[in-house]
């Protein structure tokens, strides 16, 4: 929001204060924000469209290792989308790539929807790489 727009919004909000009980100001799609922050379906608004710009993989302590086909490749794709980084290697650490608790929530939600697999956010602490997480999920599938 540009400074002039901010002043305009503030003036409108102050002038409406005596007429409304609640006021919502959103710089983006209000429906999308409600889906993300209120109803909990962060994918409702535009999940099928993946036109987000991706940044190159940062310098890490480990070399890039291509994810194996199957669960690893699917997880690497999900991580790439959530972290906006491409490519994601099988041995890349979620937290070293800039992951944090809010992104972990989004990541686990996308994993649940895509792979029909439940992963607690704390699972990323125990399995912070694509390969480790894939092994955990594949082991659970084998148990079932």
Automatic annotation (TrEMBL):
Q: Which UniProt keywords apply?
A: Phosphopantetheine, Phosphoprotein
The protein's matches in SUPFAM superfamilies, at most eight in alphabetical order, are given as: ACP-like
Report residue spans for region: Disordered.
Answer: 46-65
Residue ranges occupied by any Carrier domain in the UniProt entry: 66-141
Q: Which InterPro entries match?
A: AB_hydrolase_fold, ACP-like_sf, PKS_PP-bd, PP-bd_ACP, Ppantetheine_attach_site
- PROSITE patterns from the UniProt entry: CARRIER, PHOSPHOPANTETHEINE
Q: Where is the composition biased (Basic and acidic residues)?
A: 46-58
Query: What PANTHER family does UniProt report for this protein, alphabetically?
Result: FATTY ACID SYNTHASE, NONRIBOSOMAL PEPTIDE SYNTHETASE
Can you say what this protein is called?
Phosphopantetheine-binding protein
